[in-house]
Design brief:
Layout lengths: L2 E10 L3 E13 L9 E11 L3 E2 L2 E3 L2 E2 L1 H15 L8 E6 L9 H8 L8 E3 L2 H11 L2 H8 L2 E7 L4 E7 L2 E8 L6 E3 L6 E4 L1 H9 L12 H18 L7 H6 L13 E5 L1 H7 L13 H9 L2 H5 L1 E4 L6 H8 L3 E2 L5 E2 L6 E8 L2 H4 L3 H12 L3 E2 L2 E2 L3 E4 L7 H14 L10 E5 L4 H11 L6 E5 L7 E5 L10 E6 L6
Parallel strand pairs: 1-7, 7-8, 9-14, 14-15, 18-21, 21-22, 22-23
Antiparallel strand pairs: 1-2, 2-3, 2-4, 5-6, 9-10, 10-11, 12-13, 16-25, 17-23, 18-24, 19-20, 24-25
Helix pairs in contact: 1-2, 3-11, 6-9, 8-9, 13-14, 14-15
Length: about 475
Amino acid sequence: MKEHILSVGIDIGTSTTQLVFSRITIDNTASMASVPRIKIIDKEVIYKSDIYFTPLTSPTSINGKKVRKIMENEYRKANISPKDVGTGAVIITGETARKENAEEVLNILSGLAGDFVVATAGPSLEGIIAGKGANAAKISKEKSCVIANLDIGGGTTNIAIFKNGEVIDTACLDIGGRLIKLDKETLESIYIAPKIEKLAESMNLKIFEGEKMTLENLRKITSRMSKILEEVIGIRAMTPQLQLMLTGNDLRRDYDIDYVSFSGGVADCIYEKNVENFFKYGDIGIILGQSIKDSNIVKKKNILKAAETIRATVVGAGSHTTDISGSTITIDENVLPLKNIPILKLDEEEEKLPLNQLKERIANKVNWFRLENDKQQVALAIKGVKNISFDGVQELSKCIIDGMKGILHIKAPLIIIVEKDIAKVLGQTIKAYLPHNKDVVCIDSVTVENGDYVDIGKSIANGKVVPVVVKTLLFSHK
């Protein structure tokens, strides 16, 4: 009963904008006599768009109409209609995510995204997706090792550390190829990012917009940027400039990195040989790539060539954001798709509490999501018990309903996400105790954390499973 889902990935980055379409194949991998176990068995990129410079109306504003025209043209070239798309991601990344109208651009693109597409940004999520698109996650699992993928774009370097296929750490730095933009003919600087000005100042270099730049000074700056990358992965002593360039949390560095891979547009410049024109893109990307090529990262670490470089994020967005639920679920189809639902997760100790305390703990956590005088929809996530008794299911169901009572009046479904494979019986029991007009969505075999958001798509495989996208907007450092 193989079924195919068409997925789109759209990446609007600091330097470039692009799109890919992927075909995700699902199948029942269980034997005829077993409970169905539907899994994703294949992911294939079937179309890659041209790569465009991200259109801007000003240094702080994206030209949403031009971005949409680019996407509409690529849909036509691929001979794909938005209604054909089942899942995927639109991600505004790097410096572009900080533009003042980023949310507006996502809204402009929403009609092209089918019924079920993530629309989010965030350096941790971007780094993870790029690492998957670059194949770092897969190789770390195959080799049982730790791989650091550095996705170096126009505005940022997003780092994701993978161990045995799982993400264990992330960081983001304001290091990228278009943080200084130049006139290709005169070499006058058109744009210098504020942090780069501060970095240059710490090196006793004074640079300013409109100044004619020299290759020598630009090399000094990109060399310093590459040394900061050495600092962040632990092969050079830390300096105050590392903190300057970090956006958010630093890496923990309590693990050994076996391999390093590079993705992003600057990665192609690392591998480029016999460079004739350092300024053909009107930025410092090629010079930065050459500085990294000469750095201790390349000299002292085992380097793995990424499966994708400039396309890593968009390929990851199109192929690696989607998972599917377990095969024993309870859903009211009419409420799907659901988007951007925040997660309220109980930890294992809380789940062991007596039921009267557990319902109070759930009710207290529901209050975390209070919006002024009202409350918003949340999804309750629990690990659950694998071989739960009938009485246990009934008691847990009543406890959940009592704990979630504060938001049951909202015209939205009650959403439960369970790690263990008990969603069908739990969901049906909860539904039996609720008024007939209250919708329930109870899915399993999905792992989420507090701080995550989840999208749940329309059912596939004759209603047996639903596509799920877990969006980790903030990667917690434990």
